[in-house]
């Protein structure tokens, strides 16, 4: 047996399912053979596989590219957890289909125009002391220069701001180390105003720049009135990074068109790609955002363009706040080291990465040691004097991430687009250490907190632009390919391919899951977009329909499993607003809401209130319903919007004569439901008794479930009163309906109550031995649970006390599991076969498994009083 198989079967498989080692490893070898897996594959699988119910150590936020959204997934499992609606409508979350989310999307209008797509590029997580604090996430839209703020308390977009002067934006969003500001560099040079300027005046009237957005870290809000833009030459600014520690207060942005080439392929001129890469060097822009922010407070230092403060180049230069350092040919990524002492710039069209020393740059600035000025008067620092070293990495170096041993070993990883590789090297010595092939053409790479002051190492994700032959053919448009790489060993190991079916995901950031603390529900009646109580908040019993002129307001509630109200009648031409509050408090009890044909949709997580406004512009009958499968009675969670034309006279239909139930039949039905309710109540009471006797209130998770159950139960007396009133009046039809409602509440109570009881059993039972735990797994996975329910007679006998039923019980049961056929003639077994009309089948259990199952039965017996 191969060594890895041996190791795996011992460590993982052997203990995991309680299968004997020999059978597990032969099973494993069989699977390997069938699927053509190597030992390496198995090891990779063991490193990424996350068992059902397991959690990931890291959470990744990846740009969703042209979808304008953000994708959330876990590492190392690479399981996608969510898409967050950001710049574009996202139907599941009702993002862009209810009033409040429409308002957030409308913040992204540019010059009055609603834009329904986005080219999201660079997500960034807010920082405190240069480390991720897990509070806010921001991302830029390159196509339509905008930045969005996402609240990590609920993973919902709260704000979109439009850049007032840029016409594209690529090098954002990057937080400064205490999230004081967000840097957003423009990409394509363009006039900062909104007027026409001929291309021939590119150098005179087109500009680039970096916008420095003021961020209210506490409230997660970009403050446009306190923000400003640093005017820069039209060099096509690209990626940026904020300095930290040693270089705190400074920003770094590179560029790729110091030639200021303007293209013109249709005029017979060489295209942009030729003209933009003529020079051997472009410029790294070095600027003091801290000083510039102070300067921008004085109106004398700024010009106002489109209502926004712009610090002109000459003001920045005069105040020693803007410098240039040459960098090799059309560079791309710029990444500041965790201590802020080095700035690594990747060549893109050059095989090198250049490591700049902040010390040296600072010295040159302090001593005014410049080699000249650019055409706009910005001082240029000598590249040789600023560089620490250069590393020859390969073709097309793009981006960098730091590893956990950055301090001692200068650990850094760089993506090579042309070579399709990730290179591990040392930025202190510029020595290459390892490289791994990826598939194919990697853009960014994502380390675990790999750009903070606290890189975690462990993994790198390669964000590959092409997948080519990696997945099943699904037509000419292929998914992108995110590949997980293990960087814990000396050699990097490729672990996993994840197809990304959502736009081109440019960049991703990863944070330890332990740093995120999202809530599971909203405070009752919250409008998530203001964080305040929604004006439409409605509690049970407060539901109403109010007409104000032509506007009809529905104050409604949703809770398992009804929408209140269920009938809404309006006039054609009315404006209708549905305010809906989800009264649930239970985790994950989300309801949805839509009205047939009206293109509105809302997602109502527990506690949330939403508003949906539309014009009732067509006559007819429109069912509305809950769109989340929230309970067994989800399909019944519905109502009708009836739109009538007030100018029409409707002839009423002739009423059909229907056969009616006789009074005796009605009485019989009434008695039946009353009896059912009494029986159900008994079950509930026994569960309640059990919960109380075992002090459920000591266990918060159980307590929450019990409260939820009692909530449902508490609604019964009111219904009972109505049922009895109708019964007294002799209206049995209505009495039966209310008794049925009581039954619904009872079922919901029992449902949650039994969940609570099962949880509580686990909490108060004697601890399970490892063998008993394995036994329980074997019991369930071996199919025993199909016929036997512990504590209950179902399609097979209850097994509580089974070891006491026979002399030498343990041996007897073991033999019976191993070889049931031999006991079919045993008189006791005979009687069981007759009673259940079933024979105990041979499930092919191994001796190990049987031993464990016996241990499990012992545990059941010890806790028999609980079942
Ligand atoms: S940039 S693939 Cu658009 Cu982030 Cu380098
Ligand atoms: Cu609520 Cu389905």
Automatic annotation (TrEMBL):
Kindly give the PROSITE patterns that the UniProt entry links to this protein.
Answer: COX2_CUA, CYTC
The leader peptide range reads 1-22
Pfam families reported for this sequence: Cupredoxin_1, Cytochrom_C, nos_propeller
Q: Where in the cell is it found?
A: Periplasm
Q: Note the InterPro entries from the entry.
A: CcO_II-like_C, Cupredoxin, Cyt_c-like_dom, Cyt_c-like_dom_sf, EfeO_Cupredoxin, N2O_reductase_N, N2OR_C, Nitrous_oxide_Rdtase_Sec-dep
Q: Which UniProt keywords apply?
A: Copper, Heme, Iron, Metal-binding, Periplasm, Signal
**Where mainly found?**
periplasm
- Cytochrome oxidase subunit II copper A binding domain boundaries: 506-656
Q: Where is the Cytochrome c domain?
A: 770-861
Presence of the UniProt keyword Ligase in the record: no
Among PANTHER family, the record links this protein to: CYTOCHROME C OXIDASE SUBUNIT II (PTHR42838), NITROUS-OXIDE REDUCTASE (PTHR42838:SF2)
Kindly give the NCBIfam families that the UniProt entry links to this protein: nitrous_NosZ_Gp
Task: From the Swiss-Prot or TrEMBL record, give the protein name.
Answer: Nitrous-oxide reductase
* Organism of provenance: Hydrogenimonas cancrithermarum
